[in-house]
Amino acid sequence: MKFRRIVLVLLAILAAFAFSMSCGGSASPLPQGVPYIEEPEPEPEPDPEPDPDPDPDPDPDPDPDPDPDPDPDPDPDPDPDPDPDPDPDPDPDPDPDPDPDPDPDPDPDPDPDPDPDPDPDPDPDPVADDHHVAEALLKDAKVCKEIVSDKASTLTDGLILYEVSYTDPQNRPMKLFALEVDLTKDVTIMGTSANADKDFGTLQVLSKQVESREAADNVDVYAAVNADFFMGNGKPCSPYWHNGQNYKDTFDHSDYKYVAVLEKNKTFYFWDKNQYAQGRDYKRIQECVGAYMIYLVENGVALEIGNPDVAPRTLIGRSANGKKVWLAVVDGRQSSWSNSITLEQGGRIMQALGAWEAQNLDGGGSSEMIIRKDGQLVVYNRPSDGSERRVANGLAIVKKRQ
User: Fold this and answer.
1) What is the per-residue burial (b if ≥16 Cβ within 10 Å, else e) of 144-180?
2) Are 149 and 174 in contact (CB under 8 A)?
3) Quick one: how many helices (H) and strands (E) in the chain?
4) Which sign, positive or negative, has the C-alpha torsion 345, 351, 357, 362?
């Protein structure tokens, strides 16, 4: 094939040379004959064939680019069509979801806010389920045979009232009213005496002492009990202080040698005469009333006391750190209502309440508890005299008015 091509080329050259010579012209380059010779060159057609191949290759390359674009475009187009359909669906779904979510979020937020607000004031719900006092009493056979009823309620933040009806070992009815004071809260304890101490040394019923204390000190009284024993002249047997001011500094009865003291740092203690003198000299006393001659509870344990005498009792106790105080009244001398207790039983009751130390205050017809109920101060127990007895002083649980 190659040889044949060479022959044909040579023949063409000779023919062209002969023709030019016949025409009398000089020899010229061969471009004029080349077109005729190069027609049989179809073999470069494989080049155009591969050209179209590479052409379609680059075409398909760009084509596949646009094709895949349009392909993915139509795919994403139909996808976005279904996508936007599901998108708007999920969008509105998540939109309403987050909308209702924030709606329920703020709803639960304000709900818990109002819940804790009303809770600390009445707080009956969590406290109403608190039966630890009754359960502790029931375990002590020397105090309690059976629990008839028990109730706990919050008078204000930091002040809980426990009421327990039970039967004693002789199966007689008994009534206990006890206050738990948390001095880490806004409540505090104040002494009371006649006409807000203006007539100190004069006996006056507790309700009047409390009313005058509210007005004079700009406080709200939430509860109060009677306090110190007193002499015939109307003065308490032991020292008395209010708001850091001393109104009586002496122990006038040899049997009564302890005082109940609230220090200026809101810590509660029982002091003997020597401790009282030191605390007075160091100006640590905020409030002070007389207590008793012996402890009823020491180191969290009720003491055995041989005195068999029974009476209505007013009791006071403290926690080990002095930041909680318990004030209790047990009614007595009323056979169908409540039948009095011994001093040892009083100590066991204070131990059941949680006291680390406890003392006895003036009892009998003086035992009284006042409670703020429905905005009014009322005598909550049943004094054995049938009405309030005039007393030397008392202890009130108060909050400063805003």
Assistant:
1) beebeebebbbbbebbbbbbbbbebeeeebbbbbbbb
2) no
3) 7, 20
4) negative
- Using alpha carbons, select from 280, 395, 390 the residue that is nearest to residue 329: 395
Location of structure tokens 């003392």: 359
Helix (H, G, I), strand (E, B) or coil at 177: strand
Q: In whole angstroms, what separates CA 312 from the centre of its chain?
A: 39
| Cβ-proximal residues to 253 (8 Å cutoff; 6+ apart), any chain | 229, 231, 237, 238
What would the pLDDT profile of 93-135 be if each residue is shown by its tens digit?
444 444 444 444 444 444 444 444 444 444 444 686 889 999 9
Picking from 8-22, 164-178, 340-354, which range would have the lowest pLDDT averaged per residue? 8-22
Q: CB–CB of 143/176 below 8 Å?
A: no
Please name every residue paired with 330 in a beta bridge, in sequence order, or none if there are none.
176, 313
* Cα–Cα dist 369/361, whole Å: 13
329 burial via Cβ count (<10 Å: 0-12, 13-18, 19+): buried
Task: Quote the pTM value.
Answer: 0.70
Phi, psi angle pair for 254, to nearest 5°: -65, -25
